[in-house]
Specification:
340 residues; alpha+beta; two-stranded antiparallel sheet; 12 helices; 8 strands
Amino acid sequence: MSIITQEQIDRVAAFVDACGEAKREPFFGPDEEANFQAASNWTRITLTFGDRLHFRSALIPFRRLWSSSDPAHWEATVTILKDSGLPQALELAARDCEAQARWEIDRKDPPGSVPLTRTKAVEVWMNAMVLPDPGRSKELRAEFDAACTTYGHAAMEYAFRSAVKWLGYHFLRICDRAAEPALAFYCERGIVPSFAVGSTMRIKRREKLATGTILLRRGVSDFAPEESFEQKFQRLLGQMDNRALQAVVKYLDASSTELVLAVVRSRSIIDLLTSIGGRLEICVFPADRVGGPARDDFHASSHGAEGRFNIYANNFVVTDDRGLSSLEGNLKRFRAQLLG
């Protein structure tokens, strides 16, 4: 086993610490949406932004993970994980997550948006909004202003937000699959960081001080109205993990109350559709009888990794075997989330 230095173990610990902070940010959670939709001819583009305050708050841990001058820098951490005598499974996990992160860093947003790599979008926005680069501040600000003029401010902001969202997702995967297990591996062998990981985030709602005084912490959001069941339904339905069910449910002809009751009472997608007067048919696409929008009763269509779904009048849904499997699994998971 290679000997990991104190500086290296502290770097891995700093990365885990920063990721722990990021995990507590709503922006990196499943409810914060950054969505891109475009008409088939690219004449109309809809950019969906999440909460601005959530985003600004999330930039604090993201900057720690992104900046090469920070002890928590993701790239420096991965380099250590690949060459510090870890079990093969952890080393391979680190390499795999690194490859996915690098692919994300080099990719560009869809056509019609901003033709900049994730790296450039992050670089110019971070310089303008978070922490100016001492050596290149003027140059980067000029690039930022020029890009906003060329592509539009909204498109540039979406490119930045989506870059932070997806890069953060990959950084957290590195933490979960490699960095956190690696830190535990070394700690079990007596090689420990020089600081307490997560100490800045261990905030209790009720804390007894050394003097005996009781201190209560209460956030502003604690006073907000409780979420209704229908609001919870819509929030969960909008999460990425539920996109197969969302692809169908959002086009069904039924009220919110009817849909909530149908989901609660149904154990299968067929039961759900039947309960609102609909039906399901399985086919191999393309199929002339049910294969496309040429039918007079066509309502909507969705096609993605989860399968293909055509929705027609009277809640008639046509899908393929993959789509059925996705819907059944998604419905089971969605019901557990809704009723949990």
